[in-house]
Design a protein that fits this description.
Elements (H helix, E strand, L loop, with lengths): L8 E7 L2 E8 L6 E5 L8 H5 L3 H4 L4 E5 L19 H13 L6 E6 L1 H10 L8 E7 L21 H11 L6 H12 L4 H6 L29 E6 L9 H6 L5 E6 L5 H4 L1 H20 L1
Parallel strand pairs: 3-4, 3-5, 5-6, 6-7, 7-8
Antiparallel strand pairs: 1-2, 2-4
Length: about 290
Amino acid sequence: MLTETTEITENLDLVSDLETRYLSGGPQNAPVIVFMHDGAYGGASDVTWGKILPEAAKKYRVIAPDLLGYGGSAKSVRADVSPFAFRIRHIFSLLDHLGITEPVHFVGNSFGGSIGLRALADEQYRHRIASVSTFNGSGGPWKAPDMTKLGAFDGTRESLEQLVDLLCDPVDDKADHLAARYKWAITPGHFITMRAPHTQLPEALKVERPADTFPAQLKEVNTPALLVECSKDTLLQEGWSKNLAESMGNARREVLNRKHCPNITHPEEAWDLIDDFLTSVIEGSAN
């Protein structure tokens, strides 16, 4: 849900011939932050980052897209590549569409944070990334058993509430968040694009996929990264950020006493971490 009385604009553009909804705001000549939402049912830019975008736009140019398959963007999915690959390409196509060629700061929660890390691991895109901040997005590894529970949505508000309880700490405005997420969760095409990658293939069509070597590609990367782990998060293994930091050249770790989505339930705390990190990165690059 987007905080009211803001300067954040909702946009719907065709990018690579695909409808792309994104929120934007802030000074046009300021450093660019690209906010990427979580990958649970009903994920969208306003649902994940709506409380933070207005504050961020006071000093940064913010772009918050709905990833393909989510929110108001096209319910398009690629089943022949990883769930990260085609969305990363689409994000950079959006930046090209907007004329943004300078390196940007990626900030993501859960799946959105993993997309930022995966983009950084890709030689094709890493030169366009100034930093990555991830809140409980590990890039894929170190999932805990509760992660499988996020696939249990059956179309009802009651089942979605169970997922929200996994993602979020108890807060007074839980009903507002649930309503905003449910609106996107029942959008035609969303459920199908979420389930498509998990379709069981006939035995004759099954092939062995190449081993995923992530995060080995990050050892050679010195791009600054902020890894935010939460001690009450049951969706990722404890210590995932420490494991990931050991595979990165320039990572800062923070641990919050929250669940999986502190950016939703404790936006001021989350933004303070992001802003402090970005300020140090930007000031450091200016010296």
